[in-house]
Design brief:
Elements: H1 2-16, H2 20-32, H3 37-52, H4 58-73, H5 79-91, H6 97-111, H7 129-133, E1 162-163, E2 168-169
Antiparallel strand pairs: 1-2
């Protein structure tokens, strides 16, 4: 019932708040109450990207490994795998930078009126002679061939200068 959602919310918020003690409590309460460990593991995969993100990129690896471990061995043995992951996440630094930036991109797409901007010609793949003749790929600078990063636009002209990470146009 509703307590299912209340407990997962409490677990999520305890990890977000870096409270390892409360995180373990809510995990145990769920597992000892019969919660599917794979449900908890799936929520941990989401938490790894949503709340920890780039502050600790290995968090996602931890979450996927925990999910796979739970899938392989099941309860009750997998409880310690989930406990380790939950404590790791509670102790981990947190960053919502990517989560917020992706939300800004989705909002930009939702608010756009009319057809979406075309992919700039220099970014298009040109596997045929016709496409090459139409200018597909023309002027594209292949970064690995340069010692320094190259100046090149990657967004459509209409979005030039837009920085989704800063939530404003530059």
């Amino acid at each position: 019932g509703e307590e299912h959602y209340n407990c997962i919310s409490a677990l999520h918020k305890s990890m977000r708040g870096s409270d390892e003690n409360a995180s373990l409590y809510w995990l145990a309460r769920m597992l000892e109450g019969g919660e599917d460990p794979l449900y908890v593991a799936r929520r941990l995969v989401r938490f790894a990207s949503e709340d920890i993100g780039l502050a600790d990129p290995l968090a996602l690896t931890q979450a996927v490994a925990a999910y796979q471990g739970c899938h392989f061995i099941g309860m009750p043995e997998c409880e310690v795998i989930l406990a380790q992951c939950v404590v790791y996440f509670a102790r981990a630094p947190k960053s919502i930078e990517v989560y917020r930036a992706y939300g800004n991109v989705k909002e930009c797409l939702r608010m756009h009126t009319g057809p979406l901007p075309p992919v700039p010609l220099h970014l298009r793949n040109a596997p045929t002679r016709l496409m090459k003749n139409l200018g597909y790929g023309k002027g594209y600078k292949y970064n690995p061939m340069y010692k320094e990063p190259v100046e090149q636009d990657y967004l459509p002209e209409e979005l030039k200068g837009r920085d989704f990470f800063k939530e404003r146009e530059t």
